[in-house]
TrEMBL record:
The lineage of its organism: Eukaryota, Viridiplantae, Streptophyta, Embryophyta, Tracheophyta. One of its GO terms (molecular function) is acid phosphatase activity. It is an enzyme of class 3 (hydrolase). CDD domains: MPP_PAPs. This is Purple acid phosphatase. SUPFAM superfamilies: Metallo-dependent phosphatases (SSF56300), Purple acid phosphatase, N-terminal domain (SSF49363).
Length: 472
């Protein structure tokens, strides 16, 4: 025990130092943004059993299943309708009509199938319908002649700079109990009009011989959303399905047979990179698992694509990719680095508003930073604040069987604004040419609860600093 005088002095010193720490706001001084205090167990999620109700096969002979839609042209007046029949090919006709209209139209699609090891797919139908009217509710029917099933969708409003539109963000979904929670949570959030999906769909490749039955179950699982609103597809590593040991050496075989995208409409030569316009957004989808180095087709395409974006027509420039460039988790750390080196300067030059990626099974949002000053001799190799740079958001938290990424790099880097290892989804609400509101919703909360959010100021029309913290 010390004397009362010494004890008093020690208390003064301790409280003095604590006071100084509070004054300096040391956590945000040493670290970047905030790391959520939510602590979750680092355990694998569990896939839903094959007989789960969400995988239910629709009744009736040769009934169409795994129905899903995506945008079918470059401007949002087209839709690709896809479905699978199991007993026989059946009709590949789509009947469609405007709500309250008696006049029905029809369009013939194509049918394909594939083999993967000892699995043979059902009959996979794709039908592209074009020249629809904007902002119109359409009904459609597939399975004609056997067991017809009806669905509906609403086309987006006409393209324009101040057209409000709302996108949902989902990534790395899989088919676990958590995946079902994420999808239900997204559905109960009434705002999403189109899903921007950032890759890793079914995780069938985690099963022995990449059991493609799990591609079918996944198709039936997401039908309840994907048949009624477009899901914009990005290919992830779990779509590669490449396994020489079982004799399957054609990459992306199940994915490309099952999920079509309108890549030719944006003059792409591959379904793995393409663009669409939708309402007030220009969306560029990139391929983390196709060549992107100089002189590659993707490089040439992106180089000629970015100057085409007319921000007076589509103010919001959004990029989707699978592997994130800015990721402070210890999972897939720096896997996106080589693509960042190739393309980041373009993203800054063309003022991309936001980049959504998946791959890391957690959530993270960055500050606006760039790391393009480095030139191999100048040692400028750290990200710096850059108001022309995108915000990078990792939304690979759909809930697949591989579980959460809970292990983070410490301290939190300056560029990382918020991170949390929870499953969830996000919503990007475009209000007009200057403002968009973004919110992230963790599964554990009610759908109205916002776990992370920010107002986006458009980089072309309103390039103000949105950051809530001072950081230099
Ligand atoms: Fe991935």
């Amino acid at each position: 025990m010390g004397s009362p005088v010494v004890m008093g002095l020690m208390k003064l010193i301790v409280f003095g130092v604590l006071g100084l720490l509070v004054f300096l706001d040391v956590p945000s001084f040493c670290n970047g943004g905030s790391t959520s205090s939510f602590i979750r167990k680092d355990e694998k999620a569990v896939d839903l059993p094959l007989d789960s109700d969400v995988f239910r096969v629709p009744p009736g002979y040769n009934a169409p299943q795994q129905v899903h839609i995506t945008q079918g042209d470059h401007v949002g007046k087209g839709v690709i309708i896809s479905w699978v029949t199991m007993d026989e090919p059946g009709s590949n006709m789509v009947l469609y009509w405007r709500s309250k209209s008696k006049q029905k139209f029809q369009k013939k699609g194509t049918v394909t199938s594939y083999k993967f090891y000892n699995y043979t797919s059902g009959y996979i139908h794709h039908c592209t319908i074009k020249h629809l009217e904007y902002d119109t509710l359409y009904f459609y029917e597939v399975g004609i002649g056997h067991t017809p099933r009806q669905f509906w969708f609403r086309t987006p409003p006409s393209i324009g700079p101040d057209v409000p539109y709302t996108f949902g963000l989902i990534g790395d979904l899989g088919q676990s109990f958590d995946s079902n929670w994420t999808l239900s949570h997204y559905e109960s959030n009434p705002n999403g009009q189109t899903v921007l999906f950032v890759g890793d769909l079914s995780y069938a490749d985690t099963y022995p011989f990449h059991d493609n039955v799990r591609w079918d179950t996944w198709g039936r699982f997401v039908e309840r959303s994907a048949a009624y609103q477009p899901w914009i597809w990005t290919a992830g590593n779990h779509e590669i399905d490449f396994d020489p040991e079982i004799g399957e050496t054609v990459p992306f075989k199940p994915y490309t047979h099952r999920y079509h995208v309108p890549y030719k409409a944006s003059e792409s030569t591959s379904p793995f990179w393409y663009s669409i316009k939708r309402a007030s957004a220009y969306i560029i989808v990139l391929a983390s698992y196709s060549a992107y180095g100089k002189y590659t087709p993707q490089y040439f395409w992106l180089e000629s694509e970015l100057p085409k974006v007319n921000r007076s027509e589509t103010p919001w420039l959004i990029v989707l990719m699978h592997s994130p460039w800015y990721n402070s988790y210890n999972y897939h750390y720096m896997e996106g680095e080589t693509m960042r080196v190739m393309y980041e300067a373009w993203f800054v030059k063309y003022k991309v508003d936001v980049v959504f990626a998946g791959h890391v099974h957690a959530y993270e949002r960055s500050e606006r930073v760039s790391n393009i000053a480095y030139n191999i001799v100048n040692a400028k190799c750290s990200p710096v604040p850059d108001e022309s740079a995108p915000v990078y958001i990792t939304i690979g938290d759909g809930g697949n069987l591989e579980g959460l990424a809970t292990n983070m790099t410490e301290p939190q880097p300056h560029y990382s604004a918020y991170r949390e290892a929870s499953f969830g989804h996000a919503i990007f609400y475009i209000k007009n040419r200057t403002h968009a509101y973004y919110s992230w919703h963790r599964n554990q909360d009610g759908d109205a609860v916002v776990a992370d959010s920010m107002w986006f100021y458009n980089r072309y029309w309103n390039p103000l600093n949105e950051s809530t913290k001072s950081y230099s």
